[in-house]
Structures are given as structure tokens and as C-alpha cells.
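Standup notes
- DV: blocked on the single-chain target, sequence here:
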Amino acid sequence: MKPIFFEDIELNKVYSSGERVMTDGDIKTFAELSGDFNPLHMDDAFAKANLFGQRIAHGLLGLSIASGLKTDEPPLHILAFKEVSWKFKRPIFIGDKIHLETKAIEKTDARMPGTGDVLVERKLINQDGKVTQEGIFTLLVKKKS
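- DV (later): unblocked, structure below
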């Protein structure tokens, strides 16, 4: 699918992704990449005795998935990822089926000629329909002219 330009972005239309299952392997790989080996993510016995009763995915793993999980939205002609404001609302557990809902909520002209800023709301939702993480991405998007 060909990327769409700033002018063609439809505001407030919700797009969804397919489901993705959080795996033990995802968590271990993310720990290796990030260096975050907190026992809440890595140690079953430790996690069982704590707040959530089981191991949880790294919050930043959820954010990473939310930034890359493809939805049925048309791809934007993104030049840069400028900013993120993000909330961690619920844990993501091994075996959770998560999907992403996204919508563009605001468009403004950017300082750089031929570009615009687009605020995109994203929600990472589990199999029970509960939002686990949510926030706003600010993207720099190319204009047609």
C-alpha cells in the first residue's frame, strides 16, 4: 500500500491491528536487548510473590509493540517520530492477546516546509477489551506539495 500524505489523513477514524500473543520468548529477547532483567519480568517465583502474581512484560516492550504493530490504517508518509506521551495502565502477561487501536486526532502545520505534525492516539488492548497502555505519538508527515 502506498503511503498517504498529510493532506489525506482522515481524523478520528479508528483502525485496528490483528492480535499478537505476548510470549515468554518476547520477554526474554527484550531483556537481552534492553539489559532489563528485573525479576518481575524474568523470575517466576519472585513475580508470583509480588503485586501481579505472575511475570509481566516490560512496559517498554508494550510501547515498542505499539509503535510497530501494523493496523489496517493506510501507511502515513512519516519523515520522523517526534514525541511520545505514554501511560502504562495494566500489566501485559505471558499469553495475553493484544491488539492496537489507532486514530489520528490532530493535524497542524510543522515548522519545516512541506511537512505537518500529526498526533496519533494509540491504545494497546488485551483479550478482555481492557486498555493496557495508551498514549499519543507525534509524527512528522510529508505534505504533497
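- Follow-up: The radius of gyration is 17 Å.
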